[in-house]
Amino acid sequence: MADLIDLESIRRVRPRHPAADGRVVFEKRELRQLFSLYSRRVMSGEWRDYALDFGPKGAVFSVFRRASEQPVFAIWKLAGGRERGRYAVAVGAAVLRRAHSLADILRFLEDKPRLVWSQG
User: Fold this and answer.
1) Distance CA 64, CA 48 (A)
2) 13 in a structural domain
3) Across the chain, which distance is largest between two alpha carbons, in Å?
């Protein structure tokens, strides 16, 4: 005979949202915008790898020319950056631009900084 299983006792428990523990996260729409820029830069040969980090101070999307190097750029979504801008783009410890919208940061990256290196 088969054993009876009480389905109510094993029903699926909803996973907690990552931001429920105080971490700042990128929303789906923001990730779509970030990966759109990332894919264009990968196709042009400028970027080759990325990393995502989430913490209480902010979420970071870092892009690399090579995985073994320091990030070329880091795009931050800051926890407490409402007055000076919620988003920032940085190279190392130097903040290049702060803005209230991710679109402004991505527009800055589209227009201004380009990685230039010689193959020689």
Assistant:
1) 6
2) no
3) 75
- Distance separating alpha carbons of residues 20 and 4, to the nearest angstrom: 36
Question: What pLDDT digit, counting tens, does each position of 34-68 carry?
Answer: 999 999 999 988 889 999 999 989 999 999 988 77
CA atoms lying within 13 Å on the CB side of residue 66: 3
Could you tell me the residue range of the domain that residue 87 belongs to?
22-111
> At 111, which amino acid appears?
D
Whole-angstrom Cα distance, residue 43 to residue 68?
20
Run of H or E residues at 50: strand 49-54
- What is the pTM for the complete model shown? 0.74
How many domains does the chain fold into?
Answer: 1
